[in-house]
Amino acid sequence: MRFFIASLAVLVTLLGGVSAHFSLQYPIPRGVFDAKNEVTFCDGYPDAASNRSDFPLNGGVVSFHTGHPSWTFGVILSTAQNPTSFDNFSQVVQYFQYPDAGNFCFNVNLSSSANATTLGLRDGVNATLQFVFNGGDGNLYQCADVVLRANASTPSNVTCANTTETSHGSSSAAPSGTSPAGSSNGAASYTLNANEKLVAGLTSLMVVVGAMITLF
């Protein structure tokens, strides 16, 4: 019984690492989500994607899923054709904090950011958006390579589940992961992947096992 309990404790710890990340849903990530490399520049994908997707200069939407119960999030941007260093990026969405896990989305108006003129953000410009997430255990990074468009619209299948989404402004401050810029986000539609279904199922199993253990 002791070995069984110890094994379950180890399993829960490992599975916690699976769910406690963040997964970018939109804009389209540079590569397939790789949890183990999310602590590195652009989630371990050093080269810009050749098939960039259009992203609106105004009214763009960012959506992601996270298992962290509290987190800080911000967006930095580079107009270099193939940025390879954080030095190539400038902040376009000020870091903000939110105390909940789940599915989130918010509006981003790049053309009104403080660095829009300096970065030369205009129709047709290639850009890389790097999303910086911190759930309390260090920064995590994912990137999306886009073409900025004045008349682009968010795809119809990328929607928020409610109307509480907030437009977040920008900041020229260096990334710190601590400066809040808002806290009202809407939930984006999201389908659990295989790992998350496994975590959910085993979590439920652990609740049952825990109840059984108390009987011994």
Q: Helical segment tally?
A: 3
Instruction: From the alpha carbons, calculate the radius of gyration and give it in angstroms.
Output: 19 Å
Give, in order, the helices and strands.
HEEEEEEHEEEH
Beta-strand fraction estimate: 25-35%
Distance N terminus to C terminus? 10 Å
Helical content stands at: 10-25%
Name of the CATH architecture: Sandwich
Our count of domains comes out at 1
Mean pLDDT: 75
Q: What oligomeric state do these chains adopt?
A: single chain
Regarding CATH, which class? Mainly Beta
Question: Could you explain how this protein is built, in words?
Answer:
This protein is α+β, with helices and mostly antiparallel strands. It has one domain (about 1-215): Immunoglobulin-like (Sandwich), CATH 2.60.40.2550. The protein is about 20% helix and about 30% strand. The chain has three helices and nine strands. The strands form two sheets. The chain has a five-stranded mixed sheet, with no helix packed on it. The chain has a four-stranded mixed sheet with strand order 1-3-6-9, with no helix packed on it. Helix 1 runs antiparallel to helix 3. It is globular, with a radius of gyration of 19 Å. The termini are close together. Mean pLDDT is about 75; it is low at about 1-20, about 160-165 and about 170-210.
Provide tags for this entry:
single chain, about 220 residues, alpha+beta, Immunoglobulin-like, 4-stranded mixed beta sheet, about 20% helix, disordered N terminus
Summarize the structure.
With 216 residues, this protein is an alpha+beta fold.
